[in-house]
Amino acid sequence: MTIVLNEPGVDGLTGAVDALRVWQDDRTPLQLHPGDLGWAWALGAQRLAAAVRTWSVDGRIIAVGYLDAPDVLRLTTAPDLRQDEALARQMLADLNDPERGVLPPGKVSLEIPNGALLREVLLEAGWNLDEPWTPLRRDLAEPVGDCGLRIEIAGPETAGVRTAVHRSAFASPTFTEEIWHVLAAGPLYADARCLIGYDDQDNAVAAATVWSAGPGKPGLLEPVGVHAHHRGRGHGTAISVAAAAALRELGASSALVSTPSANAAAVATYRAAGYEPSSERLDVSRAA
Q1: 275: domain range?
Q2: DSSP string, the chain
Q3: Which of 116, 136, 144, 187 is 20 to 30 A away from residue 211, measured at CA?
Q4: One domain, residues 162 and 213
Q5: CATH of the domain at 57
Q6: How many domains does one find in the chain?
Q7: Are residue 81 and residue 116 in the same domain, yes or no?
Q8: Distances (CA, A) of 24 to 16, 45, 93, 190
């Protein structure tokens, strides 16, 4: 088969997202999700498109990569081709050649699902195992109980509240009210909800954004945060429960989230909210 590497551009983002939707399944390991691209849409379609690459055969997209940072590529493949050697070898060549425009030269890190032959091929070629991550999943077959916070779905009038919680939670000034409006105007946000959690004093204490991949498919939490002034009171667990409830209302089969294994507090928070850890996933890195 002839495998073609593409930079899809803005017009091709829909095709990449549609492929990611199809590949989401509770029987497969956690992988790049449409919600990951939906969250990145906050930076604008042009910037997102510049960070996406696809691999195709006869017009069918069989792999999607998203450059989440200049040196971090998040990558997944069609589940039926995870063990395909021709695809793994072609992707290795594309990843190792900076002229092909997938990765820059120097040290880079790659996220790929467990069970992909590409991981073995990369390690054989001199790449190394890197940071471990813990994927967690909450089944949504049964109704989700009350989380203990008053939950509000953020809209244009409360975008400032939603973004203020995020900036405090992540000590980052970048997620402004203006950026939220770009996010909410993106086509993927139709299947998303931004949640704000309020305590009994009506303080906005936590927030989360959830992304559906369609009815009967796993949904994603991206991101989840607790206001810096309200930590240590169980609000992270509460907003994670609320996120699961919101995804169930959207028709999701399960709620997915992933966190660095070194962040033991986050793992404990999600477990307390009913999320069960899956097999640890290790990034793969190439030295400078």
Answers
A1: 138-282
A2: ---EEE--HHHHHHHHHHHHHHH--TTS-----HHHHHHHGGG-HHHHHHTEEEEEETTEEEEEEEEEETTEEEEEE-GGGTT-HHHHHHHHHHHH-GGGSSS-SS-EEEE--TT-HHHHHHHHTT-EEEEEEEEEEEE-SS-----SSEEEE--TTTHHHHHHHHHHHHT-S---HHHHHHHHHSGGGGGEEEEEEE-TT--EEEEEEEE--STTSEEEEEEEEE-GGGTTSSHHHHHHHHHHHHHHHTT-SEEEEEEETT-HHHHHHHHHTTPEE---EEEEEE--
A3: 116
A4: yes
A5: 3.40.630.30
A6: 2
A7: yes
A8: 13, 23, 26, 18
Residue finishing a domain among 131, 159, 189: 131
CA–CA separation, 170 vs 69, rounded Å? Answer: 17
pTM value is: 0.96
Beta strand pairing status for 108-111 and 72-77?
A: parallel
* Helix pair angle (117-124, 85-96), 10° resolution: 50
Summarised one tens digit per residue, pLDDT across range 30-72 is 999 999 999 999 999 999 999 999 999 999 999 999 999 999 9
Contact 200, 192 (CB under 8 A): no
Residues 62-89 as b/e (b if ≥16 CB within 10 A, e otherwise) read: bbbbbbbeebebbbbbbbebbebeebbe
For residue 277, what are the contacts with CB-CB under 8 A and spacing of at least 6?
134, 135, 136, 267, 271
Can you tell me the distance from the alpha carbon of 66 to that of 78, in angstroms, rounded to the nearest whole number? Answer: 15
**For residue 67, what pLDDT is reported?**
97
Question: Which structure tokens are listed for 72?
Answer: 């971090």
Tell me how far apart the alpha carbons of residues 41 and 192 are, in angstroms, rounded to a whole number.
12
What six digits make up the tokens of 154?
Answer: 């953020």
Sign of CA dihedral 54, 73, 32, 184: negative
